[in-house]
Write a structure and sequence with these properties.
Elements (H helix, E strand, L loop, with lengths): L5 E2 L6 E2 L5 E4 L9 E7 L10 E3 L2 E2 L5 E4 L32 E4 L3 E2 L2 E3 L3 E4 L4 E7 L18 H11 L3 H15 L12 E7 L4 E8 L6 E7 L5 E4 L7 E2 L7 E3 L2 H8 L9 E2 H5 L11 H11 L12 H4 L5 E2 L7 H8 L49 E7 L9 E7 L8 E4 L21 H12 L3 H32 L3 H34 L3 E5 L5 E5 L4 H6 L19 H5 L11
Antiparallel strand pairs: 1-2, 3-4, 3-16, 4-21, 5-10, 6-9, 7-8, 10-11, 12-13, 13-14, 14-15, 15-18, 16-20, 17-19, 21-22, 22-23, 24-25
Helix pairs in contact: 1-2, 8-10, 9-10
């Protein structure tokens, strides 16, 4: 999602956006699958729905419409994409395309959130907006570029049966028709995608060219035994387009770099140094997340915690070998990280409050007048949805890809698995911010996320227990349908099993999260810890603030004890006001 600060003229409000992505080659995972992640770190105006776009056949001469990408709700309104959730509602009108390209005879089915996420062939994508040296605007919006990364990811899903093909399709279309980023300035003008299939993984970077009508792009293959991180800043360094196994890209990068004095033409071109505009918002906005992810996945690498400047210092590699093989659960833990147990632990200190909440919303009342910044964490309060896409070799195509999709913020979500071969998504994935629908995953997760802020250090333990138990059940369910797909001969039976699993697990997640929300309110409401003793009697015990926090907020400097009675006073007044500190009584 866009990482630029966008001032909304009508309301004067601000939107902070940005995403964190991880990737793993098949030799870096426990089961030999390829992994990529995405977090949609917008605010409450993005479109968090997960939908399925159907496969379709197209007549010769058909034109494929391209629509503008607002990156807000709704992401699209109309009929031509074949998704009922996108049909006009409540006075909405179908959108008008900003351009067209030639359609292909057949397009594949895929799962889509803001971006294409997983198609029927197991090609998966995770997105992270970056800063770029050049910026461009869309056709019909003051510019000449046709494609956003949203549209490019959709086309990759529709047309590619391999990750290598996907990056080539996106790059070629952007060069031919132009690319625009989520922001009109260089901050947010570029994009990065993690693109995977069951055998290969690529880190794809793209930005507008210097004319605003084409694009510059590169894709670096991830070594099979490596993991990688992109967190709103380019990571690919030296590019060797004469090594087509490991690098794909547009050769205009060389001439443009030389024309602008960004590269002297000697040696290999450093893509990040030449075409990135560095970190935005503040130093460590990207770097802390990259460090945090590598600290969890490859601690022995001892990555530096400090550096001078992103492009010049080259603080972190695009990929590295993990200390141990990773799996979906490991990537989920990274996506939920607040740097616990490190010097940057956001659950510690006065800002976290007495109960250690790591989530810090906008400072300064939205005025942005005060100088200062919070640490940018991987787990985040303003995430609308996130996912871990898994591509597996050696299994039937219907279950080759698994999209582990989590509504709302990663720290309190559960990741529900949806397979590449399903034919229908449950309505639980259609929640959005403009209407509170308690039957959806978004609102079940949003409720529990906000509830745990009341007493985070206690409540989050229950959430983690639920997450672990749910993931174990979901993993077993995926294993069952994988075995069925490998043994059954009836395609209809297989598809039905995939749809049933998706519906049952999604609906179960809503129920489990709702029940946990009720339990947490019962147990921790009003500053007490409530429950039942061994005889079944209800007991509510006080849960006082910790001493360190009371000292930090000068609790001892509050109102004094009742004054002592002057010497010589007698009677009821002396008995009642003996200078003792009295405990509060029931009111």
């Amino acid at each position: 999602m866009s990482a630029i600060l966008i001032a909304l003229a009508a309301g004067g409000s601000w939107v902070h956006l940005g995403c964190t992505t991880l990737i793993a080659g098949r030799g870096a995972t426990v089961d030999g699958s390829v992994l990529a992640t995405h977090s949609n770190d917008g605010e409450a105006n993005v479109d968090p729905r997960l939908v399925r776009v159907p496969a379709r056949d197209h007549m010769p001469g058909t034109k494929r419409p391209v629509f503008y990408s607002p990156e807000t709700y709704p992401r699209y309104v109309g009929y031509v994409r074949g998704v009922e959730a996108y049909h006009p509602q409540g006075g909405q009108r179908p959108w008008t395309p900003i351009g067209y390209i030639e359609e292909v005879p057949h397009t594949y089915a895929y799962l889509e959130q803001t971006y294409g996420a997983l198609n029927e062939h197991g090609v998966g994508i995770g997105e992270s907006t970056c800063s770029g040296r050049f910026a461009a605007s869309a056709r019909g919006h003051g510019g000449r570029a046709l494609f956003s990364v949203d549209q490019l990811s959709q086309l990759a899903m529709e047309r590619a049966n391999a990750s290598r093909t996907a990056v080539q399709i996106m790059g070629d279309l952007a060069v031919a028709h132009g690319f625009y980023g989520a922001g009109n300035s260089t901050e947010g003008s570029a994009e990065s995608l993690m693109v995977i299939d069951a055998t290969e993984a690529f880190i794809f970077h793209i930005l507008p060219d210097d004319t605003g009508a084409s694009a510059i792009w590169v894709a670096q293959r991830v070594p099979d035994d490596h993991v990688g991180v992109v967190a709103n800043a380019f990571m690919v360094r030296e590019v060797d387009l004469d090594d087509p196994v490991n690098f794909l890209g547009s050769r205009n990068m060389y001439s443009i770099a030389k024309a602008h004095g960004l590269w002297d033409g000697t040696g290999l071109l450093d893509f990040t140094a030449v075409f990135s505009d560095g970190e935005y918002l503040h130093k460590f906005y990207s770097g802390r997340r990259v460090w945090g992810a590598y600290h969890m996945l490859a601690p022995s690498a001892a990555m530096p915690v400090d550096y001078e400047e992103w492009r010049k210092s080259r603080p972190y590699p695009a990929t590295t070998r993990p200390d141990r093989l990773v799996n979906v659960h490991d990537f989920a833990l990274v996506m939920r990280s607040y740097y616990e147990g490190t010097p940057f632990d956001q659950t510690k200190g006065l800002a976290a409050g007495p109960w250690g909440t790591p989530d810090h919303a906008m400072a300064n009342g939205g005025s942005h007048a005060m100088k200062g910044n919070w640490e940018r964490t991987i787990g985040l309060w303003r995430t609308s949805d996130s996912h871990i896409v898994q591509a597996r070799d050696g299994v039937p195509e219907a279950v080759r890809g698994v999209l582990w999709w989590g509504a709302h913020a990663a720290p309190t979500t559960v990741y529900v698995p949806f397979t590449s071969g399903l034919t229908d998504l449950p309505n639980a994935t259609l929640g959005h911010y403009e209407w509170q629908d308690k039957s959806t995953l978004l609102w079940a997760c949003r409720w529990i996320f906000n509830l745990v802020q009341l007493k985070y250090s206690r409540m989050i333990l229950h959430v983690r227990d639920l997450q672990d138990a749910y993931h174990a059940r979901a993993k077993s369910a995926v294993e069952r349908v994988t075995a069925l797909a490998a043994s059954a001969t009836d395609a209809v039976e297989i598809r039905q099993a995939l749809d049933d699993m998706a519906r049952d697990l999604a609906e179960d997640a809503v129920v489990q999260l709702r029940e946990l929300s009720d339990m947490l309110m019962f147990k921790y409401g009003d500053g007490f810890i409530a429950g039942f003793d061994s005889q079944g009697k209800y007991v509510a015990k006080p849960d006082p603030y910790p001493d360190w926090w009371l000292n930090a907020v000068n609790f001892s400097s509050g109102p004094p004890d009742v004054p002592a009675v002057a010497e010589g006073d007698t009677g009821a007044a002396a008995a009642a006001h003996g200078g003792r500190h009295r405990q509060p009584q029931a009111q």
